[in-house]
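Retro notes
What went well: the complex prediction finally ran end to end.
Inputs used:
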Amino acid sequence: MPPSPDGALISVMLVEDDVHFQNALIAAIARAPDIRLAALAGSRAQGLQALRGPPADVLLVDLGLPDGSGIDVIRAAHSLWPGCAVMVSTTFGDEAHVLQSIEAGASGYLLKDSAPEDMLDEIRTLHQGGSPISPMIARQILNRFRDRPAMPAPAAASASAFAQAQLCAPGLLPGPGVPEQAMLSSREMEVLQLITRGFTADEIARLLQVSSHTVQTYVRRIYSKLKVRSKAEAIYEARQQGILSA
Amino acid sequence: MHDVWVSRKPRHGWLAYGMAVALAALMACWPGRSSAEPLHFQTAQVLGMDEGHGFSAPPYLLEAANPQGDWRPVSLPHAVPPELLPGVDDPLRPRTVVSWYRLQVPRQQDAADALNPYYLYIPRWKTDGQLAVYASGRLVYRSSGNLLWNGSNHPLWIPLDKARSAELPDSLLLRVEHLRATGAAVSSVWLGRQDEIGWRYRMRDLLQVQLPLMVSAAFLAVGLFALFVWIRQKAASRAPDSLYLLFFAMSLASFIRSLHFYVGQFKLPLPDQWFGWLTISALFWLIATSHFLLVRLHRRPQPRLSRAVIGITALVSLVTLPLLSAVLPGASELARVIYLVLLGMGFAIAISGLRNARLAGSGEGLLLASWGVAGMLLGVHDWLLQNNLVSVEGSYLSVYVGTGLFLIFMYIMFRRYLGALEEARQANASLAQRLRAREAELNASHARLREVEHRQTLSQERQRLMQDMHDGLGSSLVSALRVVEDGQLHEAQVADVLRSCIDDLKLAIDSMEPVEADLLLLLATLRFRLGNRLKSSSIRLVWNISDVPALPWLDPRNALHILRILQEAFANILKHAQASEIGVSTSAGNGWIEVAVADNGQGFSVDEAMKGGGKGLMNQRRRAEAIGGEVLLASSSKGSVLTLRLPEKHPA
């Protein structure tokens, strides 16, 4: 494998309680010339503790930790290590878990039953700005943006509450809608559509006449929009319910 | 004949003068009353003339001294009683007598005023005959000489300036020509200017003529309304309420009867005899109808009384028919006797009605029966009046029986209307309640159904997963167990078995995801899951799919069938075909959607594969059948194609 573009090794931190998986990945990393293990945590608490240290390039987090959810670690990493690419490890890659992680700040996911070499490839891709995606996840994201295009109207928020929120906080709240940057471009939609049709990144790149790296960055951008959107929605919902005051 | 003249003092019966109180009250506030007293003649001189045959025309002018004879002083009102047993007259030329009344006019008191002439006001005169009025010897008024159309129920209002001048007349003479058999009468007479006595005339005219006319017409209108209600009920094929028909009959009878009181000198286009028959018979019909209405109200059948009422009514109506006038005397001639029969029948009905209504607790029946008794008393009064047995200056009161009936009728209708409203309100309320109950029932049964459905779904899902695990995961694990137990521990073999178990599991999980009828998403998922396998075996996958219609029947169970069929196809190619390329394509048409999986491998004998009954192939066919589709196989030395055909609409 070629070393990373800047010549430095990709530092990886692993938060995982399954010893066998730990060992398999550690062994694979040890064999790889361009990747090094920066830290290892076996629980949520250890993971959060490790986030106080120097940031790693890639963080690999398992969701089902013995003392809590890996989501907390992902969320903390997103704010403490903004430059770190976070990846969730999952057995089945089911969208419920993956989307939850992406909204918390992850940029990709890793299937635990993949061959160790494939896993390293995934780490490299992620580090280079690409993100994996599955047809089901693509469909889910499309649905999410389609269902509530620009202005989410949560069921909990009545029209009067809506008006009230605007009256109470003029100027402080730009509007209950999702920010402009959390909208999908038509090209991004197109990419997602093709993914739900089963096309791979390379095939999509050919179909759209772009580089396959561009397709990868599309996916990364889509993920970050999902993140922004979910955050905006959360704030909006919180305001609607009076949890946050303007 | 002269000896039979009998003069009677006016008798102020309370019935007759009940209205007088109201009148007096109105009088008090009548505008423009002059302080000058009008002349009120309460005495007169009367002269009876010899009898003749038929009505004669009154002369236009009288000699100053005429008529001459034996004038006798009497007080007014004055009545000539009829001969109760007049003997049989020739109906064409009945025997008549003439009575003259002379009124003594005092000398002129105030100056003549041409703009404000004198009027003669005669509150009532009655005779079956004709009246002529002379002022200063000139004829100023004459009624028609007729039994019926002489307008004798109308008070008279005669301007005197036509006779000579605006001055008071020298003399006033009344000529009354009447049947020997029916008597005659004249009330007291007023003479004065309009502002002095006009209100008297207006008030009497209103009460005696106009009001009965208005009420009678209104009664008939409401009766017609009741008739329409009845017809509507009948048309709606419900049992119509006889009440409404009886109301109508009553209003009609009452209207016909009342014609008597306000039809004046203008003859209706009807023979006199028929008119007399009609108005007199109508009274019987009115009372007979009242009887049936009473029975209807208290709902206590009176068969004997009913038969008697029908019998008498029919008999009287028949006997007095003008067709029989050649044989029998007409209705008008018999009226006095007939009315006695009527009073008897009316009282019997009213009293029986009172008793039964009280027993039945019918308020409406009591009301009607009480009014019946009152009406009969008014009838007695009128009979007395007609026969000059009470002061002629009174008024016929039975005309107000119709007014009372009308009010009672309105009251009953009003109560029914309110009752119907209340019923409708309660019906609505109970309807709403029933609706709520039904809704609750429906919800409960819906909930039960949902529960059953839920349980069914769960059980189906359990069966589906069990079947799937039995065929795939289970058997794979069992074979892995065998391998390990046999001690032939080829690591790669075990890893391979486990990997395929995980693949199986992943597909099972994918099948649970809602694909929203999107077959392509399902295929995409399959590719995503199997991609690594293909990559590791270095087979190129050509993904050549095109859009296909949605498959509404694509639920998790059917989705898993499709995934498993295609998974098996891929597995077979990987295992046996030794291909370097797999092509997946989709097409649609004729209600079918096809998914083709083609390889460029060595091919196989389709027949043998069928005969051999490979477990994989059998499973594919079974699954295709379960979703209404089929699996087609074609193979040559250049490669094989497996086509999965799926119906656009689910057959089930």
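What we learned: Residues 135 and 172 of chain B are 5 Å apart (CA to CA).
What to try next: split runs per interface for comparison.
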